[in-house]
């Protein structure tokens, strides 16, 4: 039994390391592009909205905290809101309209054209996120999804996608938070270390 338990650890670590290396090799340019887009949004006075369910809710809150407080460098707070944290809004909307609308209504209330909405779901099939993405389209937000496999129902609604090609939810979530950390680091890089690289994108319509 001890050997079986140890094998669980080693197999998870081995598969996680393989997935991590392959994913970031293939997705590096995509992550850089999305981070640059988020930096442009913030430089223009926009904000980042984030949402997810369960473990993905925790990821949304984690990343929002990194933006508002700091990631690695000392810099001004950056505007990011996790739509998972206001229990009065969540319970009011859930009670009056249903759980499927808890993020949709917040996107409609808080989102402005040019803001970014980051939806996080390992399956890509969370109805409340699908509805929120449709609301983001309606309001003129840029939509990004962190998901697994093909991105599920969310994929057609997202302008930019970070998809982890795996079936195992814990490993997908581990890649999601690593990718999220890189988005935080790269946003800081563009806004506070390499503004010259961002300038051409700020001048675009």
From TrEMBL:
GO molecular function: carbohydrate derivative binding; D-sedoheptulose 7-phosphate isomerase activity; zinc ion binding
Top-level taxon of origin: Bacteria
Pfam families, sorted: SIS_2
Cell cycle is among the record's keywords: no
GO CC, alphabetical: cytoplasm
Residues that hold Zn(2+) according to the record: 62, 66, 173, 181
Any one of the GO BP annotations: D-glycero-D-manno-heptose 7-phosphate biosynthetic process
Cofactor descriptive note: Binds 1 zinc ion per subunit.
Entry's localization field: Cytoplasm
Residue ranges occupied by any SIS domain in the UniProt entry: 38-202
Keywords, ordered alphabetically: Carbohydrate metabolism, Cytoplasm, Isomerase, Metal-binding, Zinc
PROSITE patterns given in the database record: SIS (PS51464)
EC class name: isomerase
Documented EC number(s): 5.3.1.28
InterPro entries in UniProt: GmhA/DiaA, Phosphoheptose_Isoase, SIS_dom, SIS_dom_sf, SIS_GmhA/DiaA_subfam
Residues the entry annotates as binding substrate: 53-55, 66, 95-96, 121-123, 126, 173
Pathway named in the protein's UniProt entry: Carbohydrate biosynthesis; D-glycero-D-manno-heptose 7-phosphate biosynthesis; D-glycero-alpha-D-manno-heptose 7-phosphate and D-glycero-beta-D-manno-heptose 7-phosphate from sedoheptulose 7-phosphate: step 1/1
Catalyzed chemical reaction(s): 2 D-sedoheptulose 7-phosphate = D-glycero-alpha-D-manno-heptose 7-phosphate + D-glycero-beta-D-manno-heptose 7-phosphate
Additional comment: The reaction produces a racemic mixture of D-glycero-alpha-D-manno-heptose 7-phosphate and D-glycero-beta-D-manno-heptose 7-phosphate.
Stated role: Catalyzes the isomerization of sedoheptulose 7-phosphate in D-glycero-D-manno-heptose 7-phosphate.
HAMAP family linked: GmhA (MF_00067)
Entry's family note: Belongs to the SIS family. GmhA subfamily.
Protein name: Phosphoheptose isomerase
Lineage: Bacteria, Pseudomonadati, Thermodesulfobacteriota, Desulfovibrionia, Desulfovibrionales
Gene that produces this protein: gmhA
């Amino acid at each position: 039994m001890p050997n079986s338990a140890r094998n669980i650890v080693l197999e998870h670590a081995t598969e996680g390391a393989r997935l991590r290396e392959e994913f970031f090799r293939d997705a590096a340019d995509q992550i850089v592009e999305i981070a640059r887009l988020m930096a442009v949004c913030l430089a223009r006075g926009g904000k980042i909205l984030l949402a997810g369910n369960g473990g993905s809710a925790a990821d949304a809150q984690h990343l929002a905290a990194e933006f508002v407080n700091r990631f690695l460098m000392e810099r001004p707070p950056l505007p990011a809101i996790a739509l998972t944290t206001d229990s009065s809004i969540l319970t009011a909307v859930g009670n009056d309209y249903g759980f499927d609308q808890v993020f949709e209504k917040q996107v409609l209330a808080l989102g402005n054209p040019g803001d970014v909405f980051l939806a996080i779901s390992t399956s890509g099939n969370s109805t409340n996120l699908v509805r929120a993405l449709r609301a983001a389209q309606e309001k003129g937000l840029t939509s990004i999804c962190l998901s697994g496999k093909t991105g599920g129902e969310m994929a057609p609604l997202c302008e930019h996608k970070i998809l982890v090609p795996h079936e195992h939810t814990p490993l997908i979530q581990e890649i999601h938070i690593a990718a999220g950390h890189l988005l935080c680091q790269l946003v800081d890089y563009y806004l506070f270390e390499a503004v010259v690289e961002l300038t051409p994108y700020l001048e675009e319509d």
